[in-house]
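Minutes, project check-in
Item: structure for the 107-residue chain
Input as provided by the requester:
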Amino acid sequence: KYFGTAIGVSETTIAAAAAAAPGMRPLGRFTLKGKSHPIAVFEPVSDVWLNSAAGRDYLAAYALMGEGRAAEARAAFAALAPEDCTAFHLARLTDGATSDLVTMSDK
């Protein structure tokens, strides 16, 4: 519900099904309410999307965010179409987030 995606897949699930895992777009590392360790979450996407300009641009923006380069990541996300998780991360970075780590306050 936070990203406008229909499916979110945890890193644990991906590891268990690595041989059959389709392309995955990283959504972030999330610390869920009541938990202390973050878990990476991904969205299944097509290989076509991953290899498109939009896919490459998203992955580059996400990499900047993952490296803690918040100002550069914010600018990179701002240049993307404001949809689903792109808008989510842009809003987070605009509000002062500095990485891909998201602490959830509700379930």
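Outcome recorded: The helical segments are 11-16, 47-50, 53-66, 70-78, 84-94.
No further action items on this chain.
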